[in-house]
Amino acid sequence: MINIIVGIITAMAVGFLVFWIFRPSFRRWVELPKYKMLEEERRFSDVRRDQD
Questions:
Q1: How far apart are CA 27 and CA 32, in angstroms?
Q2: Distance from CA of residue 44 to its chain's centroid?
Q3: Are residues 10 and 3 in contact, defined by beta-carbon separation less than 8 angstroms?
Q4: 22 φ, ψ (degrees, to nearest 5)
Q5: Do 48 and 41 contact (CB within 8 A), yes or no?
Q6: Rounded to whole angstroms, how far apart are CA atoms 8 and 6?
Q7: For the purposes of burial, counting CB atoms within 10 Å of the CB of 49, is it exposed (0-12), middle (13-18) or buried (19 or more)?
Q8: Where are the domains of the chain?
Q9: 23 by DSSP, 3-state: which?
Q10: pTM of the predicted structure, to 2 decimals
C-alpha cells in the first residue's frame, strides 16, 4: 500500500516538473508570488532609505 502512495506522489512530482519545464507561462504563474514579494521588499527598502 505504501508503495502505491509513494509511486503516485512521485508520478505527480515528475509530472509537475515536466509541465514546469515545458510551459514557460506556467513557470511564470508558479513563480509570481516570489517576484511580488521581492518587489514589495524592494519598495519597502526604498522607503526606509528615503526616510533616513
A1: 8
A2: 22
A3: no
A4: -95, -5
A5: no
A6: 6
A7: exposed
A8: 24-52
A9: coil
A10: 0.56
Q: Count other C-beta atoms under 10 Å from residue 26's C-beta.
A: 13
Place of cell 509570481: 32
In whole angstroms, what is the distance from residue 41 CA to residue 43 CA? 5
Question: For residue range 1-52, what is the model confidence (pLDDT) as tens digits?
Answer: 999 999 999 999 999 999 999 999 988 898 999 999 999 998 888 777 777 6
How many residues appear in the chain? Answer: 52
Cell representation of residue 15: 509530472
What grid cell was written down for 4?
502505491
CA–CA distance, 40 with 48 (Å, rounded to integer): 12
